Amino acid sequence: MPEEISDAQPEGEQPRSIRLTDPRALRAYAHPLRMTLVGLLRSSGPFTATRAAELTGESVASCSYHLRILAKYGLVEEAPGGRGREKPWRATARYTEWPEYSEDAAVSTAADALSAAIAERYFERVTRAMENRHRLPKEWREAEQFGDSLLHLTPEELAGIGAGIDELLRPYEARASDASLRPEGARPVIVLRIAYLDQETPESGKE
Question: Is residue 48 predicted with pLDDT exceeding 70?
Answer without folding.
Answer: yes
